[in-house]
């Protein structure tokens, strides 16, 4: 992570690309002079820090954005670039958000491979977890650890498997771009109720 004191990037609507940001590029970068991926742009807009894991973006959504942005062509990347403004502050509060998002990606992958048994199993697992945690306690260290372990374990594996399927589709670029736009729009519709000043751990 690179701190850039004294530099300000204006947060703009996703209707237009933010001005003054580094040039768009695939994958992670060491410094903004080398360019920035979509999540690095979101981090600059949110806090002025140069990282591809900004605290203002839900880790599951950030993981989806990184894969999509790195997997599409130059034209699609430029079209997705304005989403950085919305991703800078997209962290829905519910415990069920991550399994619901992963389940949405799995469902999109099943449209490509409808007979896939692993995808069907992952979809059921995500829906089941979303249902369980939506009625469970929302606080406490044990709860946060359980959610983190799910995300870094089965949740992330389900997401990565589904994205590999989507990336192999003949119209992958269109499917991935549409999926990310929908995910960002849905995340922004839910207010971020995190307590002010709470320290947020690295969300990679």
Number of strands: 2
Question: Helix/strand-derived class?
Answer: mainly alpha
Main sheet makeup? 2 strands, antiparallel
Topology pattern, helix = H, strand = E? EHEHHHHHHH
Number of helices: 8
What portion of residues belong to β-strands? under 5%
Large-scale geometry: globular
- Residue stretches low in confidence (pLDDT < 50, at least 5 long) are 1-18, 192-204
Mean pLDDT score, rounded? Answer: 82
Distance between the termini: 12 Å
Question: Helical residue percent?
Answer: 55-70%
Order of strands across the main sheet? 1-2
- C-alpha Rg, in Å? 17 Å
Reconstruct the topology from this structure.
Elements: E1 2-3, H1 38-47, E2 49-50, H2 59-71, H3 74-80, H4 83-87, H5 97-112, H6 117-134, H7 141-167, H8 172-189
Antiparallel strand pairs: 1-2
Helix pairs in contact: 2-7, 2-8, 5-6, 5-7, 6-7
What can you tell me about this protein's structure?
The chain is mainly alpha-helical and 204 residues long. Strands 1-2 form a two-stranded antiparallel ribbon. Helix 2 runs antiparallel to helix 8, helix 5 runs antiparallel to helix 6 and helix 5 packs parallel to helix 7. The longest helix has 27 residues. 39% of the residues are buried.
């Amino acid at each position: 992570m690179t701190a850039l004191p004294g530099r300000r990037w204006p947060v703009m609507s996703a209707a237009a690309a933010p001005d003054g940001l580094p040039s768009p590029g695939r994958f992670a970068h060491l410094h903004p002079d080398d360019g920035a991926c979509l999540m690095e742009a979101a981090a600059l807009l949110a806090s002025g820090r140069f990282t591809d894991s900004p605290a203002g973006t839900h880790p599951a959504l950030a993981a989806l954005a990184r894969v999509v942005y790195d997997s599409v062509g130059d034209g699609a990347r430029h079209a997705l670039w304005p989403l950085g403004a919305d991703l800078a502050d997209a962290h829905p509060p519910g415990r069920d958000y991550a399994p619901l998002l992963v389940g949405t990606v799995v469902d999109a992958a099943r449209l490509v491979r409808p007979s896939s048994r692993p995808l069907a199993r992952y979809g059921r697992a995500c829906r089941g977890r979303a249902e369980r945690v939506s009625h469970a306690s929302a606080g406490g260290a044990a709860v946060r650890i359980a959610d983190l372990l799910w995300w870094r374990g089965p949740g992330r594996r389900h997401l990565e498997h589904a994205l590999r399927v989507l990336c192999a589709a003949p119209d992958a670029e269109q499917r991935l771009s549409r999926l990310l736009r929908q995910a960002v729009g849905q995340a922004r519709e839910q207010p971020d109720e995190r307590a002010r000043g709470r320290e947020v751990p690295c969300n990679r």
